[in-house]
User: What shape does this take?
Amino acid sequence: MIQEQYKNFAAYLERGIEAVRKTGIRVVECRDRYVKLMLPLQGNVNHLGMMYAGSMSTLGELSGGAVAGVSFGVTEYFPIIKELKVRYVRPALSDVTLEAAMSEETIRECREKLAVKGKADFALEIKMMDAQGEVVAQVNGLYQVRPIPEGMVNPVVNFSG
Assistant: This one.
């Protein structure tokens, strides 16, 4: 389920960045402080018939921006990736999902850092799961939120695609 206030944001996540759009990533759930994303096997198969690692990496990277959007909103702040480590546990032979969430405490800590430093880092540890519920990859990401500079055109807010 995608909460009404996040429908435009979910559409942007799926179609607003061409490289992400080409993977076919879909937003399965989107609500306050939580997102569930799905990467289809179709269109993301490598030379061995399993999910392409680069597509899985894209899913892991997108999760930080996605959870930042539903935790901080999209009108005041923008997320960036600082570091991403993906440990591939087993071959993914089906669609892959991941869930990302941010605690109210982490949001509060980030807002305090934003007020003092003008930026705030947050870390995510996420498991990618196959259709059978098996872990296929472990993602460790370091992300950052920053205020949207005055005058910057915000593609998320104005997305109509």
Observations:
- The domain at 4-147 is CATH 3.10.129.10 (Thiol Ester Dehydrase; Chain A).
- The radius of gyration is 16 Å.
